[in-house]
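Final report, results section. Input specification for complex C-07:
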Amino acid sequence: MNWVRVRKDSVVINGNMLATESTGQAMLKEVYKKCIGDYPKFFKMDALCRLGFVASELLLQQESPRVVNTEHRAVILFNRSSSLCDDRNYQETIQDSDNFFPSPAVFVYTLPNIITGEISIRNKYYGETLFAVLKQFDAREIHDIVCEAFLDSMTLDVITGWVDCESDDDFEACMLLVARDENNFTPEFINEI
Amino acid sequence: MDNLQDILKQQIIDALNLEEIEISDIENDAPLFGEGLGLDSIDALELIVLLERNYGIKIKDPAVGKEIFKSVNVLADYVSKNRTK
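Structure output:
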């Protein structure tokens, strides 16, 4: 089972550290340019979406061949801070009545489930998508919700994990690709990542 | 930068986070939408905000927006004739 963990100062793929020279948003840009680099829309994304996009790209690069254009893959993600990071940025554009210029480009990211959409659009996934905001990281709840997704016979595998961004430079993501018949997908495994 | 076209190009690059695009990459007569820069409908809204914020121009008629975003030259001509700041 492939997995990725991205923190503000480190990237780990299947247990192997990816060498990076920067931290925070600069690190996400560095990883994008070094390992991805063919999706200019990345630069328009907010911090949370960049985090989820980079994590998903690194995860899917481990897959061979990479699966695209399918209705059998679901995207089910979780976090605690919802889209609060971008919500704050948007608030700044409307805070001052004398300088009131709401930004459409910032506004579109004021929902966390934009990440599941971006991943689905990028890879042409037509399966189920869900973004749930939890009170706190809960491996058991994540596990149980993903298992419920497999009750739908259409879903053969799930991109799942935790994608949380408290501020532009304080974030954490862990993402897994779980197959329907994966025996190692347990709450304990999620916690170990 | 010594003309309105180049100023607008830089403002477009900044407003739309076109980090891999430079002023020299944007032709004065090239379409802003549909090809080249790959702009979308959200970008169009952002450009409308840019015109109001930087030049005091309010675009209320969608048909006007469609016309003035044809190219940087067309946009610069419209801005020079209608700006209030």
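The mean pLDDT of chain A is 95. Chain A has one domain: 3-192. This concludes the modelling results for the funded period.
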